From TrEMBL:
Sample GO molecular function, one term: iron ion binding
Protein name from the UniProt record: Dioxygenase
Recorded superkingdom: Bacteria
InterPro entries referenced in this protein's UniProt entry, alphabetically: Phytyl_CoA_dOase-like
Lineage: Bacteria, Bacillati, Actinomycetota, Actinomycetes, Pseudonocardiales
Gene3D superfamilies: q2cbj1_9rhob like domain
Organism for this UniProt entry: Kibdelosporangium phytohabitans
Swiss-Prot/TrEMBL keywords: Dioxygenase, Oxidoreductase
Amino acid sequence: MNLAWRAMTVDERGQFDKDGYLIIRGALSPEEVDFYRSAIERVYVRHTPGEAMHLLSAVRNCPDLVGLLDHPAVFGYVWSTLGWNAHVHHSHIDVHPRVAEREPSWWHWHQDGGRQNRELETDPRPRLSVKLAYWFSDLAEPGRGNLTIVPGSHKTNWLPGPPRRDLEWPQPPGAVEVTVNPGDVLFFDRRIWHARSDNYSDITRKVAFIGYTYRWITIRDEVADLPAQPWWHNASPVQRQLLGHAGDGTGDHAWGHFPDTTPLYGELAGRGLLDSSIPALIP
């Protein structure tokens, strides 16, 4: 069975709603880990070798990562949550080698979404987007630049923090470092409070983040020139939708009024997966 077309189970949905994240262990095969890690390393040596790298527009800058957009082991979590009218709005590749000297204190804790967290007035704020984090380094122990999260904090609008980000301040109560192996994937709600920890180990932290939202929310990634790229026509219709270029101009648009012309809708409809109990999947 192609797991890309398996919906979240009731238990998975319950855990995700409660904790704000799921860890999918061993989502990538060892061969896939080697392939994608090598692709990231080739990009890294062209950009900031030896230094930390936070490179936006992951597939635009590393086309070999296109297979991560709808990877069969984890894509089902995305459409089960957001439905068929979704795209990738924000993605990045992160490489963090060992930090030679202890860095100055800085309050890194945040929810994804930027101004959404100032301009939306509800409590809790709406989910709006989810993220997949593909891990390509051995972060099975804390202290290796692990992502730090507060489980269940996705329904909390504010964390008690310092009056200035540069003041030393204790970690939020309940904070944990996510420990993962190469090939593991973290699926998380954008609202979960999280922060990258510093890497004081000899292991270089390598990870790709793919963020998904509704197509009526603008894309932050650089995607305007993608149809001119040589690899573009090898991408599937669903991958092109995720990269913001679905449709031929005869009906499909980001508002989702014409589901029959939206590739992901067609895939789900053809497989009988438009579960009417999930509002985002209703045509």
